[in-house]
Amino acid sequence: MAHEHSHASPDTSRARLGIAIGIVVCVLLVQVAGAWLSGSLALLADAGHMLSDLIGLIVALTAVIVAARPATDRQTFGYRRAEVFGALVNGVILSVVAVAVTVGAIGRLVAPAEAEVQSIPMLVAAAIGLVANAVALFVLRPAAQHSINMRGAYLEVLGDLLGAIAVIVAALVLLTTGFTPADAIASLVIAAMILPRAFSLLRDVVRVLSEAAPATTDVAEIRRHIAGTAGVVAVHDVHVWAITSGAPVFTAHVVVEASLFRAGGAGALLDELSGCLAQHFDVEHSTFQLEPAEHADHEGEVHR
Prior knowledge:
Blueprint: H1 10-38, H2 41-67, H3 82-110, H4 119-144, H5 148-177, H6 181-209, H7 219-227, E1 232-242, E2 248-256, H8 258-262, H9 266-281, E3 285-292, H10 293-297
Parallel strand pairs: 2-3
Antiparallel strand pairs: 1-2
Helix pairs in contact: 1-2, 1-4, 2-3, 2-5, 2-6, 3-5, 3-6, 4-5, 5-6
């Protein structure tokens, strides 16, 4: 169950977000102009999604900058959890946009707009958005694998790319068949693509903020590894949580043989245990309380 340790640096994340923000601004302007010229609700919905993404990317960039600040006596783990709050804002924005697009699309289906949707400007603007979002996605992808904040930014741009595809399909249907409801249907498709991503992101945020064990961390397996270490009698009071994605924290009380203390082997055991967690479970911050059996016996039933 080994993991790689290639985490994206704050400088790299800032650069990638800066490039993505520049791309999104350009595409947003194109889509707003295209929606105005074509009268397309789907294109306007995608532009609204793009605006939410721009806000989300700016929030993500701010979070990366804040998270890079060093730890203090007041913020002992530093400001890395700012990334989680950035992801929370992104998830909420995605949810609001999905609901707004759904309401607008249903309204358009119930009461069709009198003005005809111009498919050519709609198609051109969506095609430009498709290409630009593909580039932004390529830029953000490497950092999205290691940061919940960058993952939120990546998912937003991915949503834009999928939305552009939906608008292109709707424009082609309008162009070839004149089926006007295709525009509103494409808007509903865009909303349907946004909601699951928003839910996934918010679920991960709740997991971190509630200090639940990371989904990829097998706590029972960690217990077995520690208990199987030479000199260890038992392990209890195990806690695993994450400061942010990719930054798990581990603490445990480890009952050891009395002979190990007498032989002065406590330091070597700590090195072995922390090395085990870093190598096999990607836990770089671990704290162990080594204690003899007689101490563990009177610690109380709150430990496990």
